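Bench log. Compound arrived from synthesis this morning; before running ITC I wanted a structural hypothesis for how iron/sulfur cluster sits in the protein. Inputs:
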Amino acid sequence: MGYQLNEEGFNAMLSELTKEYLIYAPKCYQGGNTFSDTDCIRYGEIRRAEDIVFDRKSDYSFKEVLLPVSETLFYFTEEQVKEADVPRKKGAVIFLRSCDLHAVKRLDDMYLKNGPADYYYRRLRENVKFVLMGCAVSFDNCFCGDMGSDQADNYSVSVDKKGDFYYLDCKDEAFAEILKALPHAELEVAPCHVTENKVKVNIPDHLDASIAKSTMWDEYDTRCIACGRCNFVCPTCTCFTMQDLFYSENGKVGERKRVWASCMVDGFTDVAGGGTYRRKNGERMRFKVLHKVWDYKERNGYHMCVGCGRCDDICPEYISFSNCINKLEKAMEEVSES
Ligand code: SF4
Ligand code: SF4
């Protein structure tokens, strides 16, 4: 069922939702981006329509709502361990775009289906509803079309803002009850979706492990500065590391946290005895790229990358992930001829 709401109606819907949910959406943080004097679009709690950024792609994804950047798992003393309270007491409604809704499936794969379900992820994932934000046009660097993530239908509600009105397609009974009680017009609504991206990618279907021998990775030894930003903006990167924080007053008391980790930064592959598996930045790039567009698909049947293009947007060295993917075909030919 489709609905047309004016801004007052849309705000009334948000206000109703806040009784049971915290609402997260892309917000503008002034001056907070990679390059000086540029704003950062990042997820945060919202209450009103004007808080939501509809006309730009978010620089960071929704991921931190389900997987906090830093999350205390438990507190310990010499004698006791106490589990940390769940960071959010209410359910959550997350506004996100089609590529990110596809990314939720990847996070669920990693945290709910890759062995026993992760307890901490599951308790934040429960009672979460998704609002699909339609994309009328492709943003810079997006390649969702070639990754099959340009459309999604597993949302509770979709929303497209056109002029002064909001057009919603509702698939959720609880949302429908709220919407029906508001002044609205009923009509057919289909969420906007991108029909063409400027950026195209070609992922060879005959990729195999010999691609690791290609010299194509060498350029990243010097170009990449191993800052890890590409991992932190990626909605499908799921690695974390553990940190024990000891309180200074009593060194035997503290808390254990898990914090996001990056396969591109120094230390990620350090092992006991002083070894490091991927010392060169090109080796790290190879690992990241092939995980996103090869070995994940071997296990799950679809690529990990959803083509959001955020890694290209954020890289301070202008390294393009999509350009890198497009070098794979030629590199495979070269290694098979050598
Ligand atoms: S590819 Fe770019 S964003 Fe990623 S680690 Fe290297 S320099 Fe940083
Ligand atoms: S690898 Fe880049 S384009 Fe693919 S999902 Fe991650 S941030 Fe988006």
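What the model suggests: The CA atoms of residues 7 and 165 lie 6 Å apart. The first strand starts at residue 2 and ends at 6.
ITC booked for Thursday regardless.
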